[in-house]
Amino acid sequence: MLHNPVLLEESLAYLLSDLSGAYLDLTFGRGSHSLAILSALSQQGELIAIDQDIEAVEYGRTHITDKRFSILHGNYSEAESLIPSKKFNGVLFDLGTCSTHLDNSSRGFSFQSNGPLDMRMNNTQGLSASDWLNHAPETEISEVLYRYGNEKASRKIAKAIIEARNKTLLKTTFDLVRVIESILYRTGRTHPATKTFQAIRIHINDELHHLESALASVKNLLTPKGIVAIISFHSLEDRIVKNFFKPDVSFFPKDIPLNISVSETFKCIAKKIKPSHEEVQKNPRSRSAVMRVFQKI
Question: The whole model's pTM is what?
């Protein structure tokens, strides 16, 4: 199943200020936004994409042979080092998971199909969700579920995970789903495992810290008057984006250097743009999307 791009027309309308310019897609996925950007650019235009998923990179190199396009393997927080001294007219963030991740049971992102409990965006390194869940302390699991998933039953679920893994290790997505369903019952449209799976995915991939680091590098990636468009899919991401461009950046970790007030470097040109009713009907996964757009001064 191909990935359905969210807020495609809206993001391109803001992003493409110069059709002969250079652009950066920091979250390639399966290239839906990249292909649309290339279709709009002139022959003098250029697009570079980055993705931490090696499968996405291989897909891009195989399926997009346009000479104006290149793709690099790495986390978007590494963009400055991957593309040193390069300046772009526009930078795009399409955060969250790609539809192909959710639809591929072997990646372990979805509670709707059974597969290895992995959840790593870059499955060539780091701990899988299974590794972490089978060894982490109960208090750590509870804290992650509450902090990144806003799961009110985080303590009960963490306790149930410990009890389950003491009998047999959690190896598949359905192993985890069964534990969650022993604590929570489905009462509406939302599956009881939704918040737990989101929280574990964010933790395993250290998503919020990488987002903070990537945002801190944007000012060095853009030309004057360059545009950054950021599409978020949950409140934690959107809060980081919104707060980043405010004068007070004290919430950032000390290891992320910010040498100038961000509000002096950018101005907001579009905030909290949401998908149309028609788009949500066609692509229900888009319903939680929010886009914010900023211009470098």
Answer: 0.89
Domain with CATH 3.40.50.150 in the chain: 8-100+207-296
List, in order, residues 6 or more apart from 115 with CB less than 8 Å away: 104, 105, 106, 107, 108, 172, 173
Q: What is the DSSP string of 121-174?
A: SSTTSS--HHHHHTTS-HHHHHHHHHHHH--TTHHHHHHHHHHHHHHS---BHH
Residue type (1 letter), 267: K
Classify domain 123-204 at the CATH topology level: DNA polymerase; domain 1 (1.10.150)
Residue ranges, comma separated, of all CATH 1.10.150.170 domains in the chain are 123-204
Rounded to 5°, the CA angle 140-142-143 comes to: 65
CA–CA gap between residue 216 and residue 243 (Å, rounded): 12
Return the number of other C-beta atoms located less than 10 Å from residue 106's C-beta: 10
| CATH code assigned to 8-100+207-296 | 3.40.50.150
Per-residue DSSP letter, 54: H
pLDDT at 286: 87
- Tokens linked to 283: 């692509």
Query: What pLDDT sits at residue 25?
Result: 98
Mean pLDDT by 10 residues, the chain (297 residues): 78 96 96 96 98 94 96 96 95 84 83 95 93 98 97 98 98 98 90 96 96 95 97 94 75 47 80 94 89 96
Query: What backbone phi and psi angles, to 5 degrees, belong to 75?
Result: -80, 145
Distance from C-alpha of 236 to C-alpha of 68, rounded to nearest angstrom: 34
